[in-house]
Amino acid sequence: MTTRRELLLAAAGGWLLGSTAPAGVGALAAEAPGAEPLEALPGKKPLIRRAWRPPNYETPLEGLVPLYTPNDLFFVRYHLAVIPEIDADTWRLKVGGAAAQRPMDLTLHDLKHGFERVTLTAVNQCSGNRRGLFSPRVPGVQWGNGAMGNAEWSGVRLRDVLGKAGVAAGAVEVVFNGADLPVLPATPDFLKSLPIERALDENTLVAFEMNGKALPHLNGAPARLIVPGWTGTYWVKHLTEVRIEPAPFDGFWMKSAYRLPTGAFPSVRFKTQETPETTPITEMLVNSLITSHVNGAHLKRGAHVELAGKAWDGGAGIAAVEVSIDGRQSWQAATLGRDLGRFGWREFRYRLDAPQPGPLTVAVRARSRDGATQPEKLTVNPGGYHDNIVQTVTLDVG
Amino acid sequence: MRRTLVIACTALLAAAAAVAAVAGEQSLTLHEGAGRDLTAGRCAICHSLDYIPNNAPVMDRTGWQKIIQKMRERFGAPISDPEAQQILDYLAGNYAGKS
Predict the structure, then answer these.
(1) Within a domain: residue A83?
(2) Which terminus of chain B has fewer CB atoms gathered within 10 Å of its CB, N or C?
(3) Do B54 and A50 touch (CB under 8 A)?
């Protein structure tokens, strides 16, 4: 008997090998020696390739300049190599679990028309964003700054879906599965769980649109989980199953991956998954990124230039962004842009004068509304997560 | 039952190999050396080979040993003990760039 996995593998192989393979696959754009390799995946503009298969591609810095990251520039991150293209008409979301009172299957039509539609703006950042900048370096996908983006997500509240299925007393976690599969049956499938209270949070969504358009295939079509404020590992793509459970989920991707030393970071705790040694990563930490200039950028002496970038956090919202040009002796407030809501990033701008020739080192730090600021020193951890140290760029004034 | 499993596994590996031999990833060839073909063959069942050079700057012999162990024990990579030793020797000899 042919299994679903074999069908998917055959389909994946056929798609990749067949004459209908999109022209962008494998076409390398401007790959100069030493430069980061850019490659356009189907439906995407060129992104920085970190790995072919499973595909891991990050957004180049230019892609992080717009207030909303365009869908075709949004980063791509997979753990497993079998990624089926899903027919939205036959797709079903199975909602059940041992603590569900009324298990049910939903079609995309059910989802779109059976629940209140909600839209919110939120940053989606991979837990390992900036891992490649870690010192000392740690294994894993060597991401730069671009395993993140900001988008407007539309869908329905997970809470409403769970409510329809009936959450029994004693539910502690909700487990999520997506359609992507491992090549080998022995490889753990990518399943994640959330604490029941985060699953029932009004901002946790099952989204089917991104920036007003259907989700791109490589960002989770036809529907994915949106967990505003929490790192991307929880934002399960190609969602197929939601299970309300009375016990902590013990899958590999919760028990053994995406974990931090317990107590090392000031984030919200995922108590049903915590051990004395390690705890799951949860919220993003307050952070910022200069998007207008890179290290070594040339400035004309005496010219007024505008430094610009983005600041974000785990959902308190950004209170301030400060800039130092005197080796962190003094800090001046940057001007903040439009508030997109507490889960979106916040643009900042700062007028930079460069009166003296020579190197000019600019440091930027953001402060969250809950008082958290970016640290000077990295908290080293085995997974290479949570690099939110103060960023500096040195400009060449001449 | 056992025979069915073997056939299923062979089919899976064949399909996986088909997926591997596509797109840009075939442009990457690992360094010459004893154990190269074995390493490429086993690793590429599940992922493209660029994961190897991309992680090389972070890796030493101990690092590769941990990764190989993780791939076998956690991810079910079909690698025997003698093969694991050959793969370790190859990776430690060719892709251990940690200073």
Answers:
(1) no
(2) N
(3) yes
Please say which residue of A250, A280, A310 terminates a domain. Answer: A280
Site from B19, B30, B45 to mutate, A interface, most A CB atoms within 10 angstroms: B19
> CA A384 to CA B24: how far, in whole Å?
28
Q: What angle do CA A265, A295, A289 make, to 5 degrees?
A: 40
B15 → closest Cβ in A9, A27, A54 = A9
Residue A137 has its nearest CB partner, among B46, B58, B77, at: B58
* Residue length of chain B: 99
Q: Which residues of A touch B19 (CB under 8 A)?
A: 9, 12-13, 16, 53, 81-82, 183
DSSP letter string, A179-209: S-B-SSTTSPP-EEEEEHHHHTSTT-EEEEE
How far apart CA A89 and CA A325 sit, in angstroms, is: 56
Is residue A81 in a domain? no
Residues A142 and A64 in one domain: no
More confident residue, A304 or B35: B35
Q: What residue in B sits closest to A78 (Cα-Cα)? A: B47
Residue A192 burial (10 A CB sphere; 0-12, 13-18, 19+): buried
Closest CA to A59 of A167, A175, A171, A146: A146
Q: Tokens for A5?
A: 């996995």
Q: What is the pLDDT of residues A16-55, one digit of tens each?
A: 332 233 333 333 333 334 568 999 999 999 999 999 999 9
pLDDT at B9 over 60: no
Residue segments in chain A with a per-residue pLDDT below the cut of 50: 1-4, 6-33
Domain annotation for chain B: domains and CATH numbers: 2-94 (1.10.760.10)
Write down which residue in A76, A108, A133 finishes a domain: A76
Question: Domain for residue A392, yes or no?
Answer: yes
Where in the sequence is the domain holding A60, given as residue range(s)?
A: 4-76
**pTM of the entire predicted model:** 0.89
Q: What is the pLDDT of residue B60?
A: 95
